[in-house]
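Homework-ish question, so no full write-ups if that breaks the rules, but can someone show me the predicted structure for this set?
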Amino acid sequence: MTLAPAFVAGAGMVRFGKHTETSLSELGARAALAALHDAGIAPDRVEAAYVGSQWGGSMVGQRMFKQTTMLGMPITNVENACSSGSTALRLARIAVGAGLHEVALVVGGDKLSVQSGPMPRHPEDFDGSLGLSPPALYAMRARRYLHDYGATLEDLAAVCVKNRRHAVHNEYAQFRTETTIDEVLGSRLIADPLTLLQCCARADGAAAVVVVSEAVARKGSRTPVRIVASEQCSGRYEPGFRNMTVPEITERCAAKAYAAAGVQPDAIDLAEVHDAFSIAELLYYEALGFCGHGEGMRLIREGGTTLGGAIPVNMSGGLIAKGHPPGATGIAQVFEAVQQLRGEAGPRQVQGARLALTHCTGGGVSGLDHGACTIHILGLD
Amino acid sequence: MTTETRTTLPEAQALHADCWRTLSEHTAVLIAYRCTSCGTHFLPAVMTCTRCGSQTFNRSELSQRGTLYTYSIVHGAGGVWPPVYTVGYVDFPEGVRVFGQVRETVPGTLAVGASVGIEPAALYERKDGTVVRCFRFHTGDGEAQ
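A: Not a homework solution, just the prediction itself:
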């Protein structure tokens, strides 16, 4: 079926970081109310909610909305690892596009500062049972990328330096001070060759967006942002020799998203990509078609992915500087895209931005590149 | 009065015991699941062959050496893991890639493309004292540690 258009009418989030004294329920509720306030839509107009969280536990959405006046509507809780929030957004987009709802609320949130060490895989997972963790997996991708393409440790660190510089101007980011190549490479080893500052931080946080029909969008006071593409893929099982520098799930999902939007990668004005670790951002430049395979290091060396470059990436600071509460990440990416498309991003504004891409991928399952990937393309009419 | 019997050795548990067996004190071999229809090897086991859809497999020992596709020396992972350990993916001539730990933990002793053998090893100890054993890769020539 062809879905009717859907729009993001408003977005809100709480600052990512340590919220030791605040429950995940309250973080989510605050983000939800901020998004409704931004949209100028009263809570009693919300017809359904879709809530993404990886570690929030049972009934996470109900626990959030219990803090508001919005209980009673259908609430759908979604777990899809790092793509939990963006998967919830896709469900809302489908529901509005199918005509089920005029106004749907999407919330993503997680609270991870209470945990320590790398996030574990499920006990059933073969690789996880033998000691594989997310930083170790990305470190092995990095090792192979350095070997295959002659990239340097400085190329990896440059991602962190750029994203930390971007986050200086983002009041919602966890880390708002600049860093240097030497500081990044001198921080302690987590999984060789990745050092601490090349790994996103476990953060607490929540973000929300209001997804509405065209009729509601046209009556609102804010510039509506059209959901041009909303695509999702699961990883394919490969028992043999996978090229670990080619994130196949992201390549497939990107092809679907560009086809749905009817655009080529060079039409994208800015992107928020899933830089859970430094190497990830370079691999995703390539997988999203912003450059060819093995050219990611050239793109960052040339400044192509910062303000003034051909494709500014992670103007919010990305996961590395903004922090990574997995359920919230995909929605926080859309929050940044909405600010940029409305021209409200202040010192980090990408001038003339009309089309933004957001990309989440993650979920460790043996034999799969990743478990889940989502890509959204958002634009001005 | 009864005589208390004590075990002198900690109990050992073989992890993924279906996937490997000990050949000698310092050598082990991996045992994959081979699709009887198309010959694709899987390790660990899957219910359905992702290449052809068959659900029938037989057991097939892999070559005793493979090639290190990539690796990482991991620090401070916490949990049951030692402060420093190495993990890697190893490609076998039968067309299957296997994840596992690698004996060497010193930078410079490992390289992408290295030939690796397989040995039985204690990976970690549970809180109750049970030693968890599994296969492990190493860059040695196979017998001498």
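Now go work out the reasoning yourself. Hint: Chain A touches chain B at residues 116-118, 120, 126-127, 129-133, 135-136, 139-141, 143-144, 147, 188-194, 236-242, 244, 366 (CB under 8 Å).
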